[in-house]
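Lecture notes, part 5. Sequence design as translation. It can be helpful to think of inverse folding as translation between two languages: the language of shapes and the language of residues. The source text, in structure tokens, appears below.
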């Protein structure tokens, strides 16, 4: 071996002579084969040495590379670093394969793969699945392939995007149930896999150790300790880049399967190999250098190599408790005791001081070694060390994880990972990229620790728990500060500083999440709970969080800087304290685990005691400060709850003494009081963040770890402490003690008057919650779940996902109430009804909601639970409003109900003491006082206060324990006399006790002072007893024995001095002023003592209150006087609706039921007829409210008036607004008043328009034109019509692709280019229409405005700085009245309405005369009332709007001429605009005119105005009379005129013309307004042409025999009278004419096959002809409807043709419809039919002489287009997602980050992808221009959302895929299966077709071409 080592080429040494350069170039394969043979011999030492030498040489050829990376000059390596590296890898591959091919070798190894586990490793953003039904561990995940191969139907699964990376668990039965394995991993295949032949992997065993060592040497050399100031990420990533190929090579090896993995495991874990290679001994300088670097790296990481015994002698005695340690810490300032100067962490003082304390804190010597000692014994260990050093490079992590399917490796790796745990923490804390690093750490650890067996093994063998707890403790110690809670100067408590990066950035979460993960395993958790040392350390850790983020109330000015650290604090408590707690609790479920609970409770109490000592807490909390973080209290509370609920532990056995209980209750109570203060705006100077804290504290994710344990702890304290003490503490904490006086005025020294009311409400509400909440006091889990769900649903209807989110799940995943679990769904279906989403077009997209069932409102609505769970106070109001609405609707209660009283579930026996609160004198005094004050109308009391007071009384009556008899007997006992207010403590008895006089302290100004004090009427013997008792109490207090009782007595005494003293003391000497503590020093006015006459009992107050509430005298009449049954069998419902009056009645009934005395007294009170109450003076406050009411009434009347005025103005707007929502129009003809434009009473001559800006009405005139608000948009909807009915589907496999050749736009394009090839350009441009793609669609909201008003409106918009959703510079605005989006104004042409009527009168002129008139009118230039030459305002506007129309669409959609800029182009464009608008309206009507009626679009149609504008511009281009097609249509020509121009391109034959285009040309060329008879004349002429085209097309379609048969039959009838109106005759004539040319020849065999072999019957021919003509008739009828305002008749589909033709005047009026209708009867030939047909056919014949094929193609026009549709989408979203989310883009061949699909044509595009950007346009924007002329509808594949691009704006439309609960899942966050919602998709399609995206979607923003 020494020779081999010597042969290694060192960096500086010259190459060895015996290996010439040729050695490298040797045939690698041969060498490999030779070596393999040598090694296979039994004596293989020689072979091994040879191989060793070769490897040494080959692998160190890479050395220069590392040196180069280090920045030194590169040693001469062959062909640069890259080459050497390649070479080395090639060698390795060759050697592994042992001379064979590497690929074959890989395949051979794979054959031996016992693939029982999948183990696929993925990185962040990978899409994986999680199935809760199959998972055992909550972290279980599957790759998509395994998931789809397995059967998970009906399971609770979801798809998710991995955040940290992960690995597939398929096949691992430790993590998931075997039923969920996929088909590949179900077979336990290890049995039938043959044994691996020895020689296959023999080479690998020799080669791989060297290869891995080489990698490690690289890592050692590449690492330079980062300098203190410069982060060295760059250098590290450079080294890693160079190592990429090597690591990838290792990764590929792991993928070869189990056989290769076990070899790698051997190599990585073999300690001998490691020792031999890396010890750094021997004379190889290079290896030595490398070893030195390794040692330096270890040292600089603050770690030691055990051999170098470093400075670890300084271990203090481990007995030092934490308190001592903390004192030591408090004294240690400055950099004391640096242990090891090379430790970077000690460079700055604060951490040095942390180190000092650390040594003290560690509980035993082993902890220090946990932190600082590392010894590497194998490659695996050192590899992991470098992986950590380099901050977890992704490639390394993947390699290490890919090995995990190997069981032996898994164990070794887990142990190594644990061994490096402390080092990981140190590196993480220093890292600049802690986020990325955290993700990578968790990526590894979650794979290791989720496995219970493994976690248990490591816990036992490697002290995993010790390591974790110690590491966490050390981590937090680095950011401790002194606590300022309670006693700022002397506090010894330290807390974490939430402002530190460690907490702010959640750097701790990888470690905490590992800890939570291992605690979820029962075996590990039990170890933890049994180990006392660990529990002590853990409580120590938790106490760092106790009291963190302290808030101090700002009293003077607003805080300057609002710190946002509070979120870090809440997150820290939840993650680092609460979640481990829930983990532990989940294992304390049964009786056998009692011991664990005792342990936790014991150490928790010790820690709490330490904490109270450390902060110097005695009994009063410091004022004006609050912390929301008391994790120790919460640990204690939750373990108590668990002990009683599950472990049957006796509560008293785990409770401390009374004094400790008193201390325990103070801080949680302080939080409750502070919540009330925060909501009363007393903390407003602390900024918004304090509200944020109050909200987070009760928010659904935190409440069960925060407020619930706090309330529970208070309930426990209340049940064990003296009730008087507890109640008085509550009112004292809430600062409302001073308010509780009988006097009408009082002074509150601690609270401003404006806060008193809400604080009092807060105190009472808290008491109600405390007494009625049963979450931890006896409710079962299902009852809790139900109560939570009802509370959430009562506030608002909720979606399924928001419910899941809002209901505090038991945070521990194994607890059973996991969201989506069986109990959740069953409870949900029991309490709520599902409201499926409703779709109003134009409404907002609704989601499926759950709403409470009626019986829930009726019996379960619980305001207490609602108040506890509301984050926003408005939610409580919302719940009450919904409750009120329910009661009104169901007739249960008409008025304003109060929150209902609900009977509670019974208390668990351990907590019975809680009810003593209701039966203590202090509470009764408070209730009495408040009732009295409410009755006397004192200030600062509200209905809410009364409501809570009555609620408490009712609770007391419900829970009165003692029987009354014994109570009445024992009244005389001396204890009863302690308080002079009430004789006993039972509420039932105290209710009837009359109180006569009360002594109160009042300001001297108070009205009470004036009265004389009465004679001492009731000087009971009690008074003297009392006075004799007093001194005793005082003396006991002074004796300094801090007995519990004394504390109670003192608190109670204080309390009662402030509250009023009762009549029995009235005869005593007036005492001096109360102790200075309670009076505000120097506060005027002085307090004095007055005596009030009361003479009431609680019962009498209640009865008077009843009178007061009902507003009637003697309103209360005891019900039992009429019906004695009530008392015998009371039917008191568990749940009662009603208001204050019913509540009082209920209480009185209950009081009477419980005691005969009460019943008697109630009757007595009611018998005394109450004297009439004097009319009250109206107080100022009430006057104010009365005034307010009056003012409101007046305002209402004013408003009504205004509204009425506005209503008349808006009537027309309302009509139109109603329809924006209904695009597809109803079937009934609507008889609404049409738009003002067309209405006009006959006597008014001119159309009158209202301007919505200035409000004036008047006609539109030349110099002040009025215009319609219009939106112009380019549209390609028409172009998307297809000719087949089969809907196109979105492609979801490679085979399905969509080709656009069958769309309307494509067909028209082909036709135009064909014509342009053979005919004269200018004539071609008149023969067709354009605008199928990029046509301009004009729509209006129907409102008009003066054009000059509009200009000033635009100016004001331009100056308005508010960010609008539109761009004013582009002329965009919103209609000033209805806010509809618009971008232009269409001038209204001035003209009277009367002339319309004149023009419409039928004239009796013959067709021939009319034809002449039409021809003359067309020839006459500018027959407008005003010639265009005179520049009026109107004509200017007309021109500008024409410019707008042209600019709306792109140039390519306007210019089709071969000569750019020719006028023919504009001409074509203008009549095509008319065509586009007519065609689109037809589509909006559903493609036919059967529904008829003045369509709803009619009201908002602007076609009339548009026609005027277009006609005006068309007249500018007069067509030469010889080109005018009119002549060709109506006159016969001399035949010879065509012969002369052979060399020129001919004109388009008239039969190739598009008849609809001709119609528009003819009409727009006429002077406006047009006469009806001229219109009809034009239609008749064109119909004749159309009919001929139909016959020609029919003749071409049928085959030769049919043709000759028809030719024959028709020829016979040619001379009959109506031959010109018989299609058979005409058809035969057409056939005979066209037979003269070559049109019918050329029919080869292949052609015959094409023609459909239909037997044409006369019916089918008639149908064909009608279908051919219908589109023209429809467009013409629409045009007539708009031009002349005639209604369209409605009809059946089959009679559409005849109805439209008679409506157009084509049918003679006397026509009878008995026999079947014949389309030919509509014909009216202008000249003899046969002559003109012959002339038209001859044009065709002369063309087909040369081009028969094309001639034929042009004749068959497809005129029946189906309605346009979006692509059909698959039912399940997953099919789209799986195909598209990994699909590569056809342009840039990458997988896009945000893939999107166009729903119009199915094109796949990169959203926002810079890769596909062209001329600064991103791909989606570009596509929206090409595919939809500026409108694009895209489905974002990764988000399931649809995005609309409209011009320069875009908006998120929503999703058409919803989950099973009717909800969207935007961004696929929840990953539930989604299904198509057909209604939504229909709405989307309707908006696309009706061009209403702009009007209906509200949130538009500019996209700056970046989508």
């Amino acid at each position: 071996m020494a020779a081999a080592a010597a042969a290694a080429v060192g960096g500086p040494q010259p190459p060895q002579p015996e290996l010439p350069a040729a050695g490298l170039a040797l045939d690698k394969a041969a060498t490999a084969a030779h070596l393999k043979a040598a090694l296979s011999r039994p004596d293989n030492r020689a072979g091994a040495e040879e191989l060793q030498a070769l490897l040494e040489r080959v692998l160190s050829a890479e050395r220069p590379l590392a040196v180069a990376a280090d920045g030194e000059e590169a040693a001469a390596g062959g062909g640069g670093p890259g080459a050497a590296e390649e070479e080395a890898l090639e060698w390795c591959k060759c050697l592994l394969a042992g001379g064979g091919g590497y690929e074959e070798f890989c395949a051979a190894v794979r054959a031996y793969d016992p693939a029982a586990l999948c183990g696929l490793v993925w990185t962040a953003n990978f899409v994986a699945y999680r199935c809760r039904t199959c998972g055992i561990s909550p972290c279980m995940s599957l790759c998509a392939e395994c998931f789809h191969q397995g059967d998970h139907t009906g399971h609770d699964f979801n798809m998710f995007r991995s955040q940290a990376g992960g690995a597939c668990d398929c096949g691992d039965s430790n993590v998931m149930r075997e039923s969920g394995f996929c088909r590949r991993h179900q077979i336990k295949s290890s049995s039938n896999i043959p044994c691996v032949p020895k020689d296959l992997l023999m080479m690998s065993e020799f080669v791989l150790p060297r290869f891995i060592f080489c990698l490690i040497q690289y890592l050692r050399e590449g690492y330079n300790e980062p300098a203190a100031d410069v982060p060295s990420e760059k250098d590290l990533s450079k080294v890693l880049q160079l190592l990429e190929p090597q690591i990838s090579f290792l990764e590929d090896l792991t993928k070869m399967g189990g056989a290769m993995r076990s070899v790698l495991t051997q190599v990585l874990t073999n300690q001998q190999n490691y020792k031999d290679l890396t010890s750094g001994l021997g004379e190889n300088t290079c290896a030595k250098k490398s070893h030195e670097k390794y040692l330096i790296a270890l040292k600089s990481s603050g770690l030691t190599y055990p051999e170098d015994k470093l400075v670890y002698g300084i271990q203090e005695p481990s007995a030092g408790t934490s308190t001592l340690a903390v004192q030591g810490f408090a004294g240690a300032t400055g950099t004391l005791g640096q242990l090891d100067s090379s430790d970077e962490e000690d460079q700055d003082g604060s951490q040095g001081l942390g180190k000092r304390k650390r040594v003290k804190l560690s509980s035993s010597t082993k902890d220090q070694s946990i932190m600082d000692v590392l010894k590497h014994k194998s490659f695996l260990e050192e590899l992991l060390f470098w992986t950590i050093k380099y901050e977890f490079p992704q490639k390394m992590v993947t390699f290490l994880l890919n090995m995990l399917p190997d069981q032996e490796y898994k164990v070794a790796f887990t142990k190594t990972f644990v061994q490096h745990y402390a080092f990981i923490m140190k590196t993480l804390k220093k890292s600049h990229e802690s986020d990325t690093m955290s993700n990578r750490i968790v990526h590894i650890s979650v794979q290791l620790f989720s496995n219970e067996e493994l976690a248990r093994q490591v816990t036992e063998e490697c002290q995993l728990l010790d390591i974790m707890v110690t590491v966490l403790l050390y981590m937090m110690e680095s950011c401790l500060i002194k606590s300022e809670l309670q006693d700022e100067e002397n506090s010894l408590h330290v807390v974490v500083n939430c402002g530190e990066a460690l907490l702010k950035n959640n750097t701790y979460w990888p470690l905490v999440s590992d800890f939570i993960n291992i605690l979820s395993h029962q075996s590990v958790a039990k170890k933890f709970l049994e180990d006392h040392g660990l529990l002590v350390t853990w409580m120590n850790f938790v106490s760092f969080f106790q009291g963190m983020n302290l808030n101090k109330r700002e009293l003077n000015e607003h805080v300057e800087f609002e710190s946002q650290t509070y979120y870090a604090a809440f997150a820290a408590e939840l993650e680092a304290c609460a979640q481990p707690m829930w983990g532990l609790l989940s294992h304390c479920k049964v009786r056998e685990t009692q011991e664990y609970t005792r342990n936790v409770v014991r150490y928790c109490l010790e820690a709490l005691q330490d904490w109270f000592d450390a902060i110097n807490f005695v009994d009063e909390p410091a004022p004006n400060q609050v912390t929301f973080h008391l994790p120790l209290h919460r640990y204690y509370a939750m373990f108590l709850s668990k002990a009683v609920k599950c472990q049957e532990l006796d509560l008293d056995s785990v409770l401390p003494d009374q004094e400790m209980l008193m201390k325990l209750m103070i801080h949680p109570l302080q939080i409750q009081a502070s919540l009330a203060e925060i909501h009363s705006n007393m903390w407003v100077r602390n900024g918004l963040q304090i509200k944020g804290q109050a909200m987070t504290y009760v928010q659904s994710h935190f409440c069960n770890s925060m407020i619930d344990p706090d309330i529970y702890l208070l309930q426990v304290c209340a049940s064990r402490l003296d009730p008087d003490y507890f109640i008085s503490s509550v009112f004292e904490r809430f600062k409302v003690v001073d308010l509780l006086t009988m006097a009408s005025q009082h002074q509150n020294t601690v609270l401003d008057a404006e806060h008193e009311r809400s604080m009092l409400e807060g105190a009472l509400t808290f008491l109600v919650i405390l007494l009625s909440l049963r979450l931890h006091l006896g409710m079962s889990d299902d009852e809790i779940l139900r109560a939570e769900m009802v509370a959430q649903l009562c506030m608002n209807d909720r979606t399924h996902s928001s419910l899941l989110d809002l209901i505090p799940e038991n945070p521990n995943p194994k607890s059973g109430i996991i969201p989506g679990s069986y109990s959740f769904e069953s409870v949900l279906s029991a309490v709520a009804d599902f409201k499926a989403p409703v779709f109003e077009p134009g409404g907002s997209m609704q989601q499926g909601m759950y709403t409470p069932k009626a019986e829930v409102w009726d019996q379960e609505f619980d305001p207490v639970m609602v108040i506890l769970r509301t984050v926003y106070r408005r939610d409580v109001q919302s719940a009450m409003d919904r409750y009120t609405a329910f009661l009104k609707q169901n007739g249960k209660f008409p008025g304003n109900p109060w929150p209902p009283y609900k009977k509670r579930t019974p208390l668990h026996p351990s907590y019975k003491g809680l009810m003593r609160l209701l039966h203590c004198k202090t509470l009764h005094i408070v209730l009495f006082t408040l009732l009295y004050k409410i009755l006397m109308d004192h200030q600062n009391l509200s209905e809410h206060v009364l409501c809570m007071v009555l609620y408490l009384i009712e609770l007391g009556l419900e829970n009165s324990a003692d029987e009354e008899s014994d109570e009445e007997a024992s009244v005389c006992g001396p204890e009863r006399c302690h308080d002079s207010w009430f004789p006993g403590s039972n509420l039932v008895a105290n209710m009837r006790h009359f109180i006569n006089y009360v002594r109160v302290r009042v300001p001297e100004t108070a009205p009470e002072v004036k009265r004389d004090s009465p004679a001492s009427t009731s000087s009971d013997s009690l008074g003297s007893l009392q006075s004799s008792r007093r001194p005793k109490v005082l003396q006991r207090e002074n004796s300094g024995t801090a007995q519990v009782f004394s504390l109670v007595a003192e608190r109670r005494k204080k309390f009662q001095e402030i509250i009023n003293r009762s009549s029995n003391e009235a005869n005593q000497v007036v005492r001096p002023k109360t102790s200075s503590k309670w009076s505000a020093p120097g506060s005027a006015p002085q307090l004095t003592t007055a005596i009030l006459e009361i003479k009431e009992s609680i019962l009498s107050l209640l009865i008077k209150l009843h009178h007061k509430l009902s507003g009637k005298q003697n309103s209360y009449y005891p019900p039992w006087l009429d019906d004695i049954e009530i008392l015998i069998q009371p039917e008191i419902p568990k749940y009662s609706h009603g208001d204050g009056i019913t509540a009082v009645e209920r209480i009185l009934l209950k009081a009477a039921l419980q005691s005969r005395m009460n019943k008697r007294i109630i009757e007595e009170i009611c018998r005394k007829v109450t004297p009439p109450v004097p009319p009250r003076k109206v107080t100022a406050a009430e006057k104010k409210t009365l005034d307010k009411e009056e003012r409101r009434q007046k305002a209402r009347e004013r408003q009504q008036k205004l509204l009425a005025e506005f209503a008349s103005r808006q009537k027309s707007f309302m009509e139109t607004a109603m329809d924006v929502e209904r695009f597809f129009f109803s079937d009934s003809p609507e008889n609404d008043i049409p738009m003002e434009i067309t209405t006009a009473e006959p006597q008014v001559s001119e159309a009158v328009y209202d301007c919505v800006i200035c409000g004036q009405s008047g006609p539109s005139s030349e110099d002040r034109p009025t215009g319609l608000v219009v939106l112009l948009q380019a549209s390609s909807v028409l172009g998307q019509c297809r000719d087949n009915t089969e809907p196109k589907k979105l492609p979801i496999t490679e085979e399905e692709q969509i080709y656009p050749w069958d769309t309307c736009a494509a067909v028209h394009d082909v036709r135009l280019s064909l014509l342009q090839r053979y005919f004269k350009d200018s004539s071609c441009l008149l023969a067709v229409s354009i605008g199928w793609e990029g046509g301009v669609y004009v729509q209006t909201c129907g409102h008009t405005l003066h054009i000059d008003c509009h200009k000033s409106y635009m100016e004001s918009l331009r100056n308005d700085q508010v960010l609008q959703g539109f761009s004013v510079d582009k002329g965009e605005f919103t209609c000033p009245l209805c806010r509809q989006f618009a971008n232009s104004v269409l001038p209204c042409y001035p003209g009277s309405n009367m002339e319309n009527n004149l023009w419409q009168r039928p004239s009796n002129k013959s067709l021939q005369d009319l034809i002449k008139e039409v021809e003359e009118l067309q020839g006459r230039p500018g027959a407008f009332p005003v010639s265009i030459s005179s520049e009026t305002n109107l004509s200017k506007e007309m021109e500008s709007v024409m410019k707008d129309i042209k600019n709306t669409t792109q140039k390519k959609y306007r210019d089709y001429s071969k000569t750019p800029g020719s006028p023919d182009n504009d001409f074509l464009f203008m009549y095509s605009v008319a065509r586009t608008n007519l065609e689109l309206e037809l589509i909006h009507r559903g493609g036919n005119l059967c529904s008829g009626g003045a369509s709803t679009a009619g009201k908002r149609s602007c076609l009339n105005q548009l026609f005027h504008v277009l006609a005006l511009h068309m007249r500018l281009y007069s067509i030469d009379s010889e080109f005018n097609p009119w002549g060709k249509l109506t006159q016969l020509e001399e035949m010879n005129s065509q012969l002369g121009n052979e060399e020129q391109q001919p004109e388009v034959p008239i039969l190739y013309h598009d008849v609809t285009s001709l119609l528009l040309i003819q009409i727009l060329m006429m002077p406006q307004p047009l006469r009806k008879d001229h219109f009809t004349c034009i239609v008749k002429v064109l119909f004749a042409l159309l009919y001929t085209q139909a016959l020609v097309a029919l003749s071409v379609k049928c085959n030769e025999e049919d043709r000759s048969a028809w030719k024959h039959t028709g020829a016979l009838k040619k001379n009959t009278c109506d031959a010109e109106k018989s299609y058979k005759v005409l058809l035969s004539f057409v056939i005979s004419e066209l037979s003269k040319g070559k049109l019918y020849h050329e029919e080869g065999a292949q052609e015959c096959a094409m023609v459909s072999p239909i037997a044409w019957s006369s019916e089918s021919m008639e149908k064909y002809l009608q279908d051919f003509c219908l589109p023209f008739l429809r467009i013409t009828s629409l045009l007539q409807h708009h031009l002349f305002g005639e209604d369209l008749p409605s009809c059946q589909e089959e009679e559409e043709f005849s109805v439209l033709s008679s409506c157009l005047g084509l049918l003679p009026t006397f026509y009878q419809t008995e026999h079947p209708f014949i389309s030919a009867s509509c014909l009216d030939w202008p000249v003899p039919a046969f002559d003109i047909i012959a002339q038209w056919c001859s044009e065709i014949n002369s063309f087909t002489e040369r081009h028969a094929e094309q001639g034929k193609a042009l004749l068959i026009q497809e005129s029946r287009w189906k309605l346009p549709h979006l692509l059909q989408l698959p039912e399940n979203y997953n099919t789209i997602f799986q195909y598209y989310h990994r699909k590569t883009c056809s342009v840039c061949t990458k997988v896009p980050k945000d893939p999107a699909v166009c729903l119009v044509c199915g094109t796949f595009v990169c959203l926002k992808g810079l890769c596909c950007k062209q001329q600064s346009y991103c791909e989606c924007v570009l596509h929206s221009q090409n595919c939809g002329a500026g409108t694009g509808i895209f489905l974002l594949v990764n988000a399931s959302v649809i995005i609309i691009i409209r011009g320069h704006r875009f908006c998120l439309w929503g999703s058409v895929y919803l989950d099973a609960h009717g909800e969207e899942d935007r961004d696929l966050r929840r990953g539930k299966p989604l299904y198509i919602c057909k209604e939504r998709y229909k709405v989307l399609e309707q908006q696309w077709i009706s061009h209403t995206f702009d009007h209906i979607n509200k949130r538009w923003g500019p996209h700056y071409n970046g989508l």
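The translated text above is only one of many valid answers, since several sequences can fold into similar shapes. The mean pLDDT is 77.
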